[in-house]
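Hi everyone, sorry if this is the wrong subforum. Our group has a chain we'd like a structural model of before ordering constructs, and none of us has done structure prediction before. Sequence below.
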Amino acid sequence: MLRRQQLDRFKKATQTQHLSSSSSSLSSSSSLYYEPNYPKRTRLHDFPTRASEKEMAKHDRYMIHSLLYTEMLTEEYLHRHWKVPDPRNRVGPWKFDRKVCIAVRIRPQREIPYINALIMTLMGAHVEGEISTSLNKRVAAGNRLLSYVDLNLVNVDGTVKEHDHNGKGKILNLNFVKVHNIGDRNRYVGDNSRNYYSKRLENIVQMLESARICVESNLPWCLLMEEYTVVSIDFLNSLKRYVIAPLESFAASHRMDKTESDGEVFSRMKKMSVISLFSAYNTKTASVMRVHNVEYSKNQYEKDRGKINSELKAMDLDEYDFQYAMYPIVEEPSNSSNGKNDHLVQGGLDTAMLFHTSMVESDLIPMLKRMKRKEERRIAMEQIKGIFGLDNLQGKEEDGGATRFLDVERELSLFTGIKRYRVEPSLVNRIGFYDEDFQWHNGNSKDMKSNLGITNWLTDPRFVFEPGDYYEGIDEYCELDNGTWIWDALHNHRVKSCCDEMYATHKRCLGEE
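Answer:
Right subforum, don't worry. Here is the predicted structure as tokens:
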């Protein structure tokens, strides 16, 4: 009785406070909402909301399945299905030349094998038995991916070492993957010496080397990704249809002459500087999908959450269709979002950035070089302060605090004066809840650090890896005239049914066949 009275008083107070503070941010209004059974905090749980627990369950499924999938990658399987296709002898509908250089920043020493999940989803998560039935027998399973992309893994953990734990050794040794060790090329990578190190400088150098790899590939498109990501099973088709094809069509229709490249058209027309393939921002609701926020979890999560076909069938909704849209991002001053940092999260926080390679060479690399020199000067000034005992002096912080946080998407847009875009729902989803390098949350990663190592909840709940069959278990059952439901052995037949008197004595219905 006492608890009921307490809950009633809490709800009344909550309603009053909410009406008087409707303009407050999601993060600040979380305390005004109550979600039954949450937060869950034990030695095995640390979930502030139901939405966060649901998204973590997806994360765990990706990781466990990817570990099992890695064990399937035998030499025989890879030789049969994942040979790099000969450009002179390509078959099937993917006969065109490669277009996209993918450069993935990886940390092989990371305990959680995120790279396994990304490679698994890129490869389609096939199992041995479904290859022959789901794909043309004359075309290897990997033909689509390997005909279209050049896949590069950029090792940022310093020198090359053996990384056999969690199946990473198999991933790093795949015949169609190129592994680049940038620790051999740059002193800043993997060295946290106080003399010349900062996390921002390290990230700049890593991004710079990844960009150079794309330029060296001579492919028209460059996709820079983080390893804690996954892609949908329709990734290549959707990337072509909803992103690359519309942009190439725009360039073709606005070209001044035959010698003008697509990138030059984008730059001249100020069409786009970068496209984020990940977005935790929902344009329809004009808000960030914060799954750790009580208000969002309670009121909006179920509306946003990506649903597979069995759920859609049960809800009498249409079959899932992979559809995406590009939205321009309007840059706002850093102090215009009331502390919510929405101006940052409207982009993808450098999770999966698509550039035209010509603009990587003309804009991105020069900007990163400039940022590198500026950060080196800042570090040098810090050294001078330390030598002369001037640590307490407050120097001017350049770029509005950018020395603490690197957001290449936003900074490139400001550097070039050309707008950036995001894709919704995400073509590439972020699942890096345990990313130990995560630095963004009101400028302080400690705000989100949990006792289980969870550092953030940035993800797109709309993302669906594979929708599955448009089918629900009830389709296998039928109802007799007396209201009894029985399993219909003839459920695959369009006309016949065991609940029909005409077929009730059929051998299948009687269990004799």
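For your construct planning: The chain has a mean pLDDT of 80. The CA atoms of residues 413 and 419 lie 6 Å apart.
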